Amino acid sequence: MIYFVYKRTDKKLFLEKEEDAIKEGKSVRFNIFLFAIPAFCDCMGSTLQLIALNFINSSVYQIIRGGTIVTTFLFSILILKTKAERYQVLGSILAFIGVLVVGISAVVFSESAQSVVQSPIVGA
After folding, report:
1. Given CB 3.0 to 4.6 Å as the disulfide criterion, which of 69, 75, 101, 112 pairs with 95?
2. Structure confidence at residue 118 (pLDDT)
3. Quick count: other Cβ atoms within 10 Å of Cβ 90?
4. What is the reported pLDDT for 2?
């Protein structure tokens, strides 16, 4: 997307850089399918979240989505090799504790264990 916006906004500069790249023997083609795998994963994640929302309370769902803070923090350390600051570690620990407390309370104080489960997906 950024490629196409850049190409349209400053056409003269884009053409100059394209010519320079051709002179250096670099490829000027852009693979538009580069983002297909991440887009597919995002679509699947959203679909699974929608399915999960049908089976739990919306308040529990929203709080548990806060777990993305913790996973993003862990991935930035493990994959990107960034150094974590103290406030980032503290924030991630607090978010994890919050998600853990809400998740446990949803399981312990669940009303669906005593009543008939009604699923909007299957209509039962």
Report:
1. 69
2. 55
3. 11
4. 62
* Domain range for 92: 57-124
- Spatial distance between the Cα atoms of 33 and 29, rounded to a whole number of angstroms: 12
**pLDDT below 50 — which residues of the chain?**
113-114, 116, 123-124
Cα(112)–Cα(95) distance, integer angstroms: 26
In this structure, is residue 8 part of a structural domain?
no
Is the dihedral angle over the CA atoms 56, 57, 58, 62 positive or is it negative? negative
- The pLDDT of residue 6 is 57
Establish if 40 belongs to a structural domain: no
**Is residue 88, in this structure, part of any structural domain at all?**
yes
Q: Work out how many domains the chain is built from and give that number.
A: 1
pLDDT at 120: 55
Instruction: Give CA–CA dist 33/27, Å, rounded.
Output: 16
